[in-house]
Amino acid sequence: MSREKQKNIKPINFSELLTMAQNYKSLILDKKTDLYQTRSYFIEKFKNQISSGSKKLYWKNFNYNIFSEKNKINERNFEKNNIVSFEKSSDVSIVINDGVITSDKNLPNNIRITDFKEISDDDVCSYIKKTDKLNDPFVSVNNGSCDCGFVLDVKESKSPQIIHIKNISSKAGLYQNRQIYNISKNVKITFIESFEGCSEQFNNTISQWEVKENANVYKYSFGSRAGSHKNSQSVFSEFVEQHKNSTCNFYSFYFNEGGLGFSGKIRNNILFNLIGENITSNQWSVSLLRDECFVDNDVRTQHMSPNCSSSQVYKGIYNDRSKGRFDSCVYVAKDAQKSDTVQSNNNILLNDNASVNSNPQLEIFADDVKCAHGSTIGQIDRNALFYLRARGISEVLAKKLLLTAFVGDIVESINNSDILNLVSEEVEKQFHN
Amino acid sequence: MLEIKNLQSSINEKNVLKGLNLNVNPGEIHAIMGPNGSGKSTLASVISGNEDHEVINGDIRFMGESILDYSPEDRARAGIFLSFQYPVEIPGVSVSNFIKTSVNEIRKSRGLPQIKANELLKAMREKLDLLSMKSEFLSRSLNDGFSGGEKKRNEIFQMSMLNPTLAILDETDSGLDIDALKIVANGVNKLKSSSNSFIIITHYQRLLNYIKPDFVHVLSDGEIVKTGGAELALLLEENGYDNIVD
After folding, report:
1. Helix, strand, or coil (residue A69)
2. Which CATH number is B2-245 given?
3. Tens of pLDDT along B81-105?
4. DSSP, residue by residue, B182-231
5. Candidate from A392, A405, A409 with C-beta closest to B90
6. Is the Cβ of B12 closer than 8 Å to some Cβ of chain A?
7. What pLDDT, on a 0 to 100 scale, did the predictor assign at position A174?
8. Dihedral of alpha carbons A12, A18, A21, A27, sign
9. pTM of this prediction?
10. ipTM
11. A158 to A187, A189, A398: CA distances (angstroms)
12. Contact at 8 Å (CB) between A355 and A386?
């Protein structure tokens, strides 16, 4: 089996990606438009990025040829038992089927969703230009060629709302998507994101958030945007711009087992930009991985104004040959006095073949701040295990208790009891042996 | 109940117990005293099955059966309880969840159904009262942020919930103030019956003012070098170990 796997390892085929992007560009008929110019600019940028990239860059790790026809033959229907239903925990569901909005019925009046293809060229240009500062070829190629996705506008409502966004995908090969969230001031909203699909997909999604004054957003995301196929790969770039007095609590759960389980590789490029005062910005992530899964988190949090607090709490438990990575940087600008930041990354390796890299960093230019950072990588505590066993608890159950407790603080921090119960149940399923 | 014959053990290739013999009958309280490094805590660990220690020779029989091949959980299920000298902090596991899991695992091994939630709660409240502990205690994370006294009381609380046949108290008295000491001793005395036994490992005679031992053993360099009645503890307190060990 391992020999077969070796054969499949090849670097991502950027030339095919480029051809595809250029084909897309040729579809824009009027070459003088801003849209054509902007798209061309990003395709050119993409070309430069891939030709000058050093071998160490993360995209060299993506090892499967995304476009060859024979991979598409492997396309198969989604088969997973016990798909978790969020009906009970959400007010309304939006279903996105291969990038097309297929169900947006019963949306409350304050929420509007628009297909990315339906918005004006000017709007497209302004959205994609906002991500120009990012030096990542997948962002560039998405900027240069993606016309699939949605724009979700949320205005203030009388009471808090919970929206489930259910992404279903069946396509193998490259799938690009762009999801834009415009959250108006004073909005209180919770999003649940789930992903269904089981094909050899390479998913390149950009998610852009603008969270206005005094808005409060919770997001719970489960699994991989590329679905649950073991050869699926997701590159996800998320940009969040927070304005003054806003609060974001973003949760990500990566499980390999149970109804929300995924398989494959994930790369997250996450950027939070805190541009006003009194912002709260919390990220929580739990990776409970097996087999050869890989979750690679690259996180940047920028404090640009005074009196903001942020936290990045990432935990992982790795079994088999799974891998994790945490590369996080908190940047505190000169004016961002009284910033209060916490970076924490704790990992347990259950197996000699599992691995994790952890690199919490700080760039501080202000002189009156509180910035904590730390990371741990270890194994199950032998003394704790003996303590439990000495009370008659079997070794298997004792390990399960300890591992569940390890991620317990993140799970317990969920402030919605339905979602908390659902996550607790799914965590239980991860440690069956 | 417990027969230990010629017990020899090692940890990290260092021999600790060097031919220890001990018999404990139902209803007896044995105190084990001895200088630092004599092997007192090792004896507690070895009886309860800590896999860091290797038994190189001898036998431990409990209720007529050799338990050397038993896992720690099987020993606990057979009725052996160790009150830890250093109870482990386990954030994220509540005291009540821990007790519930423990009680049910032991019941399961004996072919009993799971205990009803309200029965368990009632039992826990009773025992807490006995140890002058508040019921908020149940929802706290196990030993996490507990004071030294709280940790030791928590051990005795667990002991009273599990009602073991043989309880080994490893320096349960150290770090306790006099009031806590009385409470702990009271817990032990309440549990004491003609069918269960205690091994009390201690440095000081103090605890033995409240729990009267039937036998006092002096452990030195991995062996029991002297055995006597309760009066031996007083003698040790007065004269130190040196006279006896040499």
Report:
1. helix
2. 3.40.50.300
3. 999 999 999 999 999 999 999 999 9
4. HHHHHHHHHH--SS-EEEEE-S-SGGGGTS--SEEEEEETTEEEEEE-HH
5. A405
6. no
7. 84
8. negative
9. 0.89
10. 0.96
11. 9, 11, 46
12. no
